[in-house]
Amino acid sequence: MRSLCAWPTAIGLMLFASVAAAVTLPPSAFTYNAAAPLDVRVASTKASGSLTVRDVTFASPAGGRIRAEIIAPSGAAASRPGVLFVHWLGDAATTNLTEFVPDATALAQRGAVCMLVDAMWSKPDWFEKGRAPATDYRDSIRQVVDLRRALDVLAAQPGVDPKRIAYVGHDFGSMYGAVLSGVDTRPQWYVLMAGTTSFSAWYLLGAQPKDKAAYIAQMKPLDPPSYLSRSSARGFYFQFSDRDQYVSAPTARAFAAAAGARGEIHFYHADHGLKGAAIQHDRLVWLEGRIKLPTTAP
């Protein structure tokens, strides 16, 4: 069902060399007051077998509140890894934190503390009506800052080992995760699914800016590959589709190439949604080995 591309390849190394020299924003562009209260508010708590599931909100550094779900083993805290999940922009039912609930539940059953968040694109009709080209740059920086704040909340959970933090993202969640990898040193392991190399490439599928060239130039310093190339993370697992209508195979390889020898790229016979038991199984097994959890059956 799946194929593993040889990595690194000569083409991949050339692509890596080109993105390594790209212009990026300095880490200071993504700073915030990390000492501010997290202001976590629990909306509900329920038991689910051996797990505790909490629906919460926490304060965004830019104002407003972020919705999240924390799935963790019940009982006394031990040294546990933490995993942050960020969803895609896809079908309405899973364009929110629910996309990765099955993954988070599986990892929590093996001892991880998992946190799923609603990103800015979870709002209904966000792409068509909720965003504007004039604020895409500002909002992109704020989204990365919100992910950093989410890591603060995750790290504050009882028993979470700060040296065993991972990140899983799909589509926009993959792209903003790639940027995060270059500005925050806490996640050491990343699963990035179906991301593309340029934010403007996707944003220009929607509302058009008054000056297209100026817009592309403004967004370019946020392009994900350059952040992957400067990341201090230890490993990246890239999942792509072999028939993705939004991400071509060369673009997928360019995205993954930026991680250099730390990256592992897989293509699957699927569409952009990357749904399927084998696809999920592969990323869970990869994560379990890195964050030191008992592995799933092969």
Brief digest:
With 298 residues, the protein is an alpha/beta fold.
CATH architecture: 3-Layer(aba) Sandwich
Report how far the terminal alpha carbons are from each other: 15 Å
Largest sheet: 10 strands, mixed
How would you classify the quaternary structure?
A: single chain
β content, as a range? 15-25%
Uncertain runs: 1-21
Please describe what this structure looks like.
- It is built from ten helices and ten strands.
- It is α/β, with parallel strands linked by helices.
- It has a single domain (2-290), classed as Alpha/Beta hydrolase fold, catalytic domain (Rossmann fold, 3-Layer(aba) Sandwich), CATH 3.40.50.1820.
- Helix 5 links the parallel strand 7 and strand 8.
- Helix 5 (172-181) runs parallel beside helix 8 (224-230).
- The chain is globular, with a radius of gyration of 18 Å.
SSE topology sketch:
Elements: E1 2-4, H1 10-20, E2 41-48, E3 51-59, E4 65-73, E5 80-86, H2 101-109, E6 113-117, H3 126-130, H4 133-155, E7 160-170, H5 172-181, E8 187-193, H6 199-203, H7 212-219, H8 224-230, E9 235-241, H9 249-257, E10 263-268, H10 277-290
Parallel strand pairs: 5-6, 5-7, 7-8, 8-9, 9-10
Antiparallel strand pairs: 1-10, 2-3, 3-4, 4-6
Helix pairs in contact: 1-9, 4-5, 5-8, 8-9
